[in-house]
Amino acid sequence: MSARPAAPAKASISLAWVGLLPFALFAFLFLILPTMFIVVGAFRTPEGAFTLANVRGLFTPSILAAFWISIRVSFWSALIGCLIGFAMAAAITVGRLPNGARSPLLTFSGVASNFAGVPLAFAFLATLGRVGLVTILLREWFGINLYATGFNLLSFAGLTLTYLFFQIPLMILIVTPALDGLRREWSEAAQILGATRFQYWRMVALPILWPTLLGTLALLFANSFGAVATAYALTGSSLSIVPILLYAQIRGDVLGDPHLGYALAFGMIFVTGVANAIYMWMRARSEKWIR
């Protein structure tokens, strides 16, 4: 007598997926849905008809100049933030700083990486503005007139400097786990083979960390490219960058063009999307080595 075949097991959905539902709903309502609304609005007229005029408006000289300034600010703040943040992260991981310095630095980085907007702009105005604390101390104690040297906080250099306050901590938080992932055996093997410390970093450590560094550079670029509150509170309309231009188009003034604002937002989504895609691709490559 043949054995009776076992009934196929019923597919069951793990209850662990239920915990993702609130986040999925939140992401759909406040990220995916608004993004779709912006993309559709970029290709519509106020009457609802399809048009490419809004996208063609992105190629006017004033808007191209705003994109160029935003790209330059984002690039330089990301590059300088990567260099300084990497040096600080290396000091607390593979350097000779005492262990007690690691926890306070990482804690501060977690707070400072999220410190932006109007509070950050006010902090820099109160510190490096024309009547800021550091500006007055330099003039009264050392005879250095900071603004006579050509420095201006409400400028390209000033905005880049302000962005570094959250770019450097973000770099520290991202690159520290990658530095922790460097195995001690790699350094010991290099020393046994006669390599110097500089040769180890040039030929072993940096090639392994290179995808992480490039990916983080792209992430920091996207992080500063989309910042609007800090730039607007700090410079107002004196520096024409894309987020400020976007705000001017959609805030409801008589001269505002909401659909051109949608096109500007669509351009920002494209630029930041490319930067984030590069970051995710580079991070996936770096994790192969870190594992």
UniProtKB/TrEMBL annotation:
How this chain sits in the membrane, per its record, is: Multi-pass membrane protein
Q: Which domain of life is it from?
A: Bacteria
InterPro entries (UniProt xref): MetI-like, MetI-like_sf
Record bears the keyword Transmembrane:
yes
Give Gene Ontology CC terms.
Answer: plasma membrane
An example GO BP is:
transmembrane transport
List each copy of the ABC transmembrane type-1 domain by range.
67-281
Q: Keyword annotations for this protein?
A: Cell membrane, Membrane, Transmembrane, Transmembrane helix, Transport
State one Pfam family annotation.
BPD_transp_1
Per UniProt, subcellular location reads as: Cell membrane
Q: Which residues cross the membrane?
A: 12-43, 49-69, 76-95, 115-138, 150-179, 199-222, 229-250, 262-282
Chief location of this protein within or outside the cell: membrane
Q: Which family does it belong to?
A: Belongs to the binding-protein-dependent transport system permease family. CysTW subfamily.
This chain's protein is named ABC transporter permease subunit
Q: Which organism is it from?
A: Amaricoccus solimangrovi
Q: What taxonomic ancestry is recorded?
A: Bacteria, Pseudomonadati, Pseudomonadota, Alphaproteobacteria, Rhodobacterales
